[in-house]
Amino acid sequence: MPASRPFGPIAGEEGTLREQRRIGLGMLAQGDIESVAGQLATLTRTVEDMATQLAALRGRADTQQEQADIQKERIDLAARELAEVSERLQAAANALRRSI
To answer: How many CB atoms lie within 10 A of CB 85?
Structure first.
């Protein structure tokens, strides 16, 4: 009740105050909604950025795994060839010993 009204509100003034409070609360709620919407938009962009980074990391990891697999195949092949050469050298050394 305003101080300038010693005998109470003028007819309709009470409803106006309620309406003002309702509008004020509605504006607060709208502000909250806008704030949450902005935060959600930021979060969505952040998640999308993280998904893009993760996809790039997966791509690099796949490439590195392929390179590691190729390198392992090459090492395995070199080890087999080395074992064959070692066997031939051992056979040659044995044959040389027998011939002496």
So the answer is: 10
Residue 25 near residue 33 (C-beta atoms within 8 A): no
pLDDT tens string 8-57: 555 555 556 666 666 666 666 777 888 899 999 999 999 999 999 999 99
The three-state (H, E, C) secondary structure of 40-99, written as one string: HHHHHHHHHHHHHHHHHHHHHHHHHHHHHHHHHHHHHHHHHHHHHHHHHHHHHHHHHHHH
For the stretch 48-57, pLDDT in tens is 999 999 999 9
Residues 6+ positions from 17 with CB-CB distance below 8 Å: 9
Q: How many CB atoms lie within 10 A of CB 52?
A: 10
What distance in Å separates the CA atoms of residue 88 and residue 100, rounded to the nearest whole number?
Answer: 18
Residues 9, 1 contacting (CB under 8 angstroms): yes
Which pTM does this prediction carry? 0.49
